[in-house]
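Fold it.
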Amino acid sequence: MATLVETGEAAIEDSTQPPRFARLPRPVILLLVLVAILCGLIAVFGPTMAAQATLNGFVAGGYIGLGAIGLTLVFGMLKVVNFAHGDLMVSGAYLTILLAWLGVPLPLGMLLAVTGTAALALATEKLVWRPLRRAGAGTLQLFLSAIGLGLVIRSTIQFFAGSQVRTLGANVVTSIAFGPLRMGTLQAVAFVVGLVAMVIVGLALRYTNIGKEMRALADNRALAEVSGINTSRIIDITWTISGCLAGLAGVLYATAIGSFNPNFGITLLLGLFAATILGGIGNAYGALVGGIVIGLSQEWSTLLFNARWKPVVGFTLLILMLLFMPQGIFGRTRRRS
């Protein structure tokens, strides 16, 4: 009788356990899904078209990932949903145009534009976000302030630069061939620069003292202050890094796409939020992966739909992640007591 009871209990436990596939780590599940989708695209459209779309997806994932890192750093640190982040990306692209108009060489102009965007992000912290925190602004007030700040930045750019389509004036005709695959020279440069920047940020967050202090502040601000961390200084550094990444992402987007207008920031913003949620809100490493996944998904979708529907793909992934995995791939599940 005891044996029968134990056998029954074991059967009940086995029935309550999730399927073996569901017990796999979330990153492994994500990788398997991506591989399965790629194999399906290869079977339907052939290896050349699928590989070209994948290559384009990695290029897009570079600037989306960079923008998502800056977005998730600010949210993880200050719990601010910075809707103006996309417009900071636009600022980087248009500062490059301004500096080129003033006669600054394009590579130097890009570097100065990234620096200028970082200064703009730090100025918003000093003039907007810090006073709002001191005034005890709640989540809704901060959210509406972010939307308003984005509109101010975008409208200012449109007032001085106009709303017509612009280019950086760089050579977008030359390309590099990888067998049957082709990538624009500037796209290749943008991809390499974005990849190097993401690696540097990831290593800095993990191994430098500032990175460790930023992670400590994101985990528990009160405990970080008690431990002697200068939280105001770390917040300023966070906004500066976020602004640098936003400016660099905007410059890389303008370089890879070739033409743009002041509204491209709001178009990319959904993809940035989708990448942030996919990777795990507040997780910079997850934002890297999320950006690559969003870039691949949007470029793969061009094999099935018109390219103008790419933002819809990002928005669809955002909704699906919120429905089925709100903690993200690398996020921690929070248990309620």
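Residues 56-324 form a domain with the ABC transporter involved in vitamin B12 uptake, BtuC fold (CATH 1.10.3470).
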